Amino acid sequence: MLVESIGDAECVKRVQRGDADSFEVLVRRHQKATFNLLYRLLGDYEEAAEVAQEVFLSAFKSIHQFRGDANFSTWLYRIAFNHASTRRKSLQLAQQRHVPLDGTELIGDGDAFADPEKTAQERETQQRVQRALNSLHKDDAAIIILRDLRDTPYEEVAQMLEIPVGTVKSRLHRARRALKELLAPQYCLKRKAS
Questions:
Q1: How many CB atoms lie under 10 A from the CB of residue 51?
Q2: Which residue among 157, 161, 182, 186 is least enclosed by CB atoms within 10 Å?
Q3: Torsion of CA 37, 107, 73, 174, to 10 degrees
Q4: Burial code of 104-124, b = ≥16 C-beta within 10 A, e = fewer?
């Protein structure tokens, strides 16, 4: 019987002992966050969905390599980041295309009674940010996504990207400045029009 209240570390131990059903608990806990991370990294809903499946398959196959030095989520996000980097290189998404978000929503809690005008403005902002993220260098985009959008602690970002914490902070500063430069013209035009 699956026990939803057990922690990730215990689930991992159970999977390592041959209890594949415990991996299902891990998937349910982390699928939305993993998909959202991949979507932000790739900028394409269908690619993110496909890569998410690959990430969980890879995690399952290599679960015996998980030593518990970091949180399971940190380890999983590292796998996701690696898969997204590989996919992004192979498809050259940053140069080939940007999929509009019309008709696609990030997985999460939605308000069925939200103000349509506010929803449209939020979607427009989300599209602008996604386009700007897509045009950043993949490492810069990853640091912004992990630290600012996922609120991942600096130490975990450093573990995922396999770089020192100081490097995370300096790259984050550089990436934020680059993102601000990309978004500034759009928001200056919007302010002038108001």
A1: 23
A2: 186
A3: 30
A4: eeebeeeeeeeeeeeeeeeee
Q: What is the domain class of 1-97 according to CATH?
A: mainly alpha
Structure tokens, 131: 């386009």
pLDDT computed for residue 43 by the predictor = 82
- Start-end of H helices in 43-115: 45-61, 72-91, 93-96
Indicate the pLDDT class of residue 113, thresholds 50, 70 and 90: low
- The per-residue pLDDT for range 67-103, each reduced to its tens digit, is 888 899 999 999 998 998 888 777 654 444 444 444 4
CA distances from 192 to 35, 103, 182 (A): 36, 30, 17
- List the domain boundaries for the chain: 1-97, 110-194
Joined together, the tokens standing for residue 51 give 């890569």
